[in-house]
């Protein structure tokens, strides 16, 4: 009985040690817009409801996109610059 208990404990510890490297991967990434995006980075993703700002996060040891409440950043020209382009 004691031998069985020791053997069982040894197997459990060995399984935990062997699984540890797989559980602690530090170079995780998400796939988005045809690229690998490192964990923690944000990108604008095309979704069914339009373009959304999303961050690559780890959920239950898997990477996943978290859609953020912020809009994707955009750039625009000031109105004066647009008038210069129109009139040459």
Strand element count: 5
Number of helices: 2
Q: State the helicity in percent bands.
A: 25-40%
Strand content: 25-35%
Care to give the gist of this entry?
This protein is an alpha+beta fold and 88 residues long. Helix content is 35%, strand content 34%. The radius of gyration is 25 Å and the shape is elongated.
Task: List the SSEs and their pairings.
Elements: H1 2-23, E1 29-32, E2 35-38, E3 42-47, E4 50-59, E5 62-67, H2 79-87
Antiparallel strand pairs: 1-2, 3-4, 4-5
Description:
Strand 1 and strand 2 form a beta hairpin. 35% of the residues lie in helices and 34% in strands. The chain has one domain. With 88 residues, the chain is an alpha+beta fold. The mean pLDDT is 78. Strands 3-4-5 form a 3-stranded antiparallel beta sheet, with no helix packed on it. It contains 2 helices and 5 strands, in the order αβββββα. The chain is elongated, with a radius of gyration of 25 Å.
Q: Could you list some keywords that capture this structure?
A:
88 residues; elongated; two-stranded antiparallel ribbon; 5 strands; alpha+beta; 3-stranded antiparallel beta sheet; single chain
